[in-house]
Amino acid sequence: MTTTKWAIDPTHSEIGFKVKHMMFTNVSGKFTKFDASIESDETDFENAKIQFTGAIDSIATGNADRDTHLVSADFFDAEKFPEIKFVATSFTKIKDSEYDLTGDLTMHGVTKSIKLPAEFSGLMKDPWGNTKLAFSLEGKINRKDWGLNWNSALETGGVLVGEEVRLVIELQFIKQ
């Protein structure tokens, strides 16, 4: 059995998230500095070793004040916890291009197991002869499970920042 290593292609990948603001609109953000890798059997990605790290200070939501608040001690506390990390514990093929990715997500000093549906988008050679593969992942986590508890009550009832965080991830890898 041959093991193949894949490295992230950061220019064609995005680690994004969405959170409700004032309980009725979504604010989107992403990590601009990250790394990921896959080690797998040449012919099948089931039980592949998958790892990801993202730099907390690279959070970008399109608003400098909000980004500064997110990396502060109120939220991620980037000074104390500079990265978010994911290590897969299983990658199970459900059918055709559908997988379940389970692993340990560590952020803000807390590690919890999460499960995300993953769609294998394909494998192909680019015009320069590099073999590439892609996965799309979407899922939901509750930020309070990782101690990200800051919020502000609204006069009209409810809170400023939603607890549920939707993950929207597009990954492209290059065969090493």
Describe the structure.
This is YceI family protein. Residues 5-174 form the Lipid/polyisoprenoid-binding YceI-like domain. Pfam families: YceI (PF04264). This protein is mostly beta strands and 176 residues long. It has one domain: Lipid/polyisoprenoid-binding, YceI-like (Lipocalin, Beta Barrel). The chain is built from one helix and eleven strands; from the N terminus they run E-E-E-E-E-E-H-E-E-E-E-E. Strands 1-4-5-7-8-9-10-11 form an eight-stranded antiparallel beta barrel. A hairpin with a 7-residue loop joins strand 4 and strand 5 (49-55). It is elongated.
The value of Rg in angstroms is 17 Å
Tally the helices.
Answer: 1
CATH arch. level architecture: Beta Barrel
Mean pLDDT: 90
CATH topology: Lipocalin
State the name of the first-level CATH class. Answer: Mainly Beta
Lay out the secondary structure.
Layout: E1 3-8, E2 14-21, E3 25-31, E4 34-41, E5 49-55, E6 59-60, H1 64-71, E7 83-95, E8 98-107, E9 110-125, E10 131-142, E11 161-175
Antiparallel strand pairs: 1-4, 1-11, 2-3, 2-11, 3-6, 4-5, 5-7, 7-8, 8-9, 9-10, 10-11
Short description:
With 176 residues, the chain is mainly beta.
Task: Record keyword descriptors for this entry.
Lipid/polyisoprenoid-bd_YceI; TTHA0802/YceI-like_sf; mainly beta; 176 residues; YceI family protein; Lipocalin; 11 strands; eight-stranded antiparallel β-barrel
